[in-house]
Here is the input.
Amino acid sequence: MNRELLQVYFIMGSNNTNRDPLAVLEEALQGGITIFQFREKGAGALIGEEKRTLASKMKELCHRYNVPFIVNDEVDLAIEIEADGIHVGQDDEPLIQLKQRCPDNWIFGVSATNEKEARQAIKDGADYIGVGPIYGTATKEDAKQPIGVEGLAGIRAIAGDIPIVAIGGIKLGHVLRLRKAGADGVSVISAISQVEKPRQTAELFKKYNQYIPSYSINAE
Ligand SMILES: Cc1ncc(COP(=O)(O)OP(=O)(O)O)c(N)n1
Ligand SMILES: Cc1nc(C(=O)O)sc1CCOP(=O)(O)O
Ligand SMILES: [Mg+2]
Here is the structure.
């Protein structure tokens, strides 16, 4: 995959905002997010038809802005609504298994908290790795212990040319140091979904990312 797509990776479900989630997503798209993940889980999450309808509307919105639409965890939903990819973690359906029923041209993302998990994700054919949590986060109830910038750098060192995106507790002020440590981008929920002005915040995430060139295995 094009690693520049990971620069501003926005994730959201309806319970990550007190506003209309479609309005928040549209503002984030206007601000220049580069990829979006639909993650409808946790307290108050929608289920059944309501969830499907929101996912479909979000996909249409992303496509209007030419932004890839990824589904978290739920491969059947992703197939049904013709998403552009799927993101799975260590407790989800294994990548090797789910790849058998997904289109080849999808984007496949896998989470890793340590080098062992990252090595396995690469072996299984992940297109990118979500590395975290970097910092403490209140958004994910079952988040693991933060691995810090050092943990990210360790995974960068073994990931070779595979794109990686940092996640967990990330705010605007963290972007430069995470990119310098080897992340191809940052993935955020609350830093965009819970601010007053998602559009302006997304613009700043994009601007800060563009100070640092994309990772290259051939770089000095
Ligand atoms: C880009 C990205 N990275 C990591 C995760 C976390 O996935 P997972 O560990 O499966 O946890 P849940 O998000 O499913 O609670 C992610 N979603 N996206
Ligand atoms: C969904 C998710 N996954 C994580 C991981 O470590 O794998 S941390 C996390 C929550 C990210 O939300 P926020 O940007 O609000 O901290
Ligand atoms: Mg998951």
User: Anything to note?
Assistant: Strands lie at 8-12, 35-38, 69-72, 85-88, 107-112, 128-131, 164-167, 185-188. The longest helix spans residues 48-64.
